[in-house]
Write a structure and sequence with these properties.
By secondary structure, the protein is of the alpha/beta class. The protein folds into 2 domains: about 1-200, NAD(P)-binding Rossmann-like Domain (Rossmann fold); about 205-305, N-(1-d-carboxylethyl)-l-norvaline Dehydrogenase, domain 2. Helix content is about 50%, strand content about 10%. The strands form 2 sheets. It has a 6-stranded parallel beta sheet, sandwiched between helices. Helix 9 crosses helix 12. The radius of gyration is 22 Å and the shape is globular. The termini are far apart.
Length: about 325
């Protein structure tokens, strides 16, 4: 099958290379000329176990092509994956300008039926907006080739992204009709795993829910660590005691300086923003965020209290 990936960041690059590895013909489009030139030479801008080898293999087999030519990418694909960044705005909301820019370009150049797959982490309702943008551009051209918008969130861990893609414990597909669901299943057929079908909005929220739950586990164990320190208990033993319960598990249950990275802070902030924007009472996610911010100060203050002046010290 012919697939076009918009965006060669962490999600887009891993998705594109892995889809090529399972047999699809992939074109990856990005506006960053230096990055595209680097990828054409078989050099990945990110490190992921096994990614360099798959990149070299599929470049040699001509199963994957990298380009800055958006129209070339649109003319190629039957499936368009939007995998561009959705960074946090100053108010905590997701900045969707790159998603909407891709949608506009698709509408300006689409001339046949295609499935638009939103891989980026986006607020609920973004699929509707993407559809409206494409429709608007097609109407300007008086063309109606037909298309469907799908939500297919990623669940990749940094360091294990290739494994997570190729051996995923589930694939979520948010669709509005069975025919499109079947086409998406065909795309992922070489990956033998559970495919969970739902509507687009539920799929969009599922990604936020998953990351917020894991962030909540981290803030929870850090809160319990405060009790453990006060009462002379061992937080590592407590972790083992509760994490051995199969309903809870040990993953993401390590006390420390809190969560960070490119996803958890952004996604929890986006949920807090959504709650505020739509009048939803959500004290839990506010607490998760506040505990995480406090935890960073607690760790720093503890180090400062122990060492005193930190100037010129290597820790």
């Amino acid at each position: 099958m012919k697939v076009t990936i918009f965006g060669t960041g962490y999600v887009g690059l891993v998705t594109g290379i892995c889809l090529a590895e399972i047999g699809h013909d992939v074109i990856c489009v990005d506006t960053n000329v230096d990055k595209i030139n680097m990828l054409k030479q078989g050099k990945s801008p990110i490190y992921e176990r096994g990614l360099d080898e798959l990149l070299a293999k599929n470049l040699a087999a001509k199963k994957i092509i990298f380009t800055t030519d958006t129209v070339f990418g649109i003319n190629h694909g039957d499936y368009f994956f939007i995998a561009v960044g959705t960074p946090s705005s100053s108010d905590g909301s997701a900045d969707l300008q790159y998603v909407y820019s891709v949608a506009k370009a698709i509408g300006q150049n689409l001339n046949r039926y295609a499935i638009i797959v939103n891989k980026s982490t986006v607020p609920v309702g973004t699929g509707d907006k993407v559809k409206a943008i494409i429709d608007k551009e097609l109407n300007k051209r008086n063309l109606h080739p037909g298309f469907d918008v799908v939500s297919n969130p990623e669940f990749l861990k940094q360091g294990d992204a290739v494994k997570d893609f190729m051996q995923s414990d589930r694939i979520i597909i948010g669709v509005e009709n069975e025919e499109v669901f079947n086409r998406m299943c065909k795309l992922y057929e070489p990956i033998k795993t559970k495919i969970v079908s739902m509507d687009v909005r539920s799929a969009e929220l599922s990604k936020y829910a998953a990351n917020a739950f894991l962030a909540t586990k981290i803030s929870f164990i850090n809160e319990i660590a405060q009790f453990a320190e006060k009462f002379g208990a061992d937080i590592d033993k407590i972790r083992l005691g509760i994490g051995s319960d199969s309903r809870i598990g040990l993953s993401f249950l390590n006390a420390g300086c809190g969560y960070g990275g490119s996803c958890f802070p952004k996604d929890v902030s986006a949920l807090v923003w959504m709650a505020r924007e739509y009048g939803i009472e959500s004290p839990l996610f506010n607490a998760v965020e506040n505990i995480n911010l406090r935890q960073k100060h607690l760790v720093f203050n503890r180090v400062k209290k122990y060492f005193g002046d930190l100037e010129d010290k290597v820790i």
